[in-house]
Design goal:
Jelly Rolls, six-stranded antiparallel β-sheet, 5 helices
Length: 205
Amino acid sequence: MKLKNKADAETQREIDALCLGTKIRKLRHRRSLTLQEVSDLTGLSKSLLSQIENDASAPPIPTLIRIGRALGVKISYFFREKSTSQRISVVRRHARQATEKLPHNRPDNLGYHYVSLAHPIIDQHMEPFWVQFEPREERDTAYYQHPGEEFIFVQEGRLEFEGADQTIVVEPGDSLYFKSSIPHMIKNIGKNTASAIAVLYASEE
């Protein structure tokens, strides 16, 4: 994946440091699963899974949740640097971990930039993130669904939520809570980057 500017290059280095593809491949091997079996469990194509394992594609959070469930781990597994039994996590501003960003010129552009806010702890039930939403064209939007629940608190900008036959606009100070098992989409409908605190709970169901 080629990133053109300095900011994107820095984001790519942070993504590379997480070694997501290597972690997924090693975990799949430990589970004695083939790519086809993981594909069957997640509904993701073998080609996409192969690209992810070879770090040719950066998976968005919903995709990581689906892969994690298929492999028997929570999403936090992919963001830890080493095994830890921490029960309290303090993530300083300079220690935040970026998890994923896609440049505008990619056809699968999601326009989301996730930053983990509790990455040292690996067995939490909730996954808090600081998320930036880049402005997107209508053709770039996509629906997602996965077991669990989500909470979003808008800090800057205007976001539009679509799901369960509803369209809801949320602005700074507004919050949104929904069952993520319903097909849903969140997009930035402003001209500038929007930001929010998002908390994901990925159920085992």
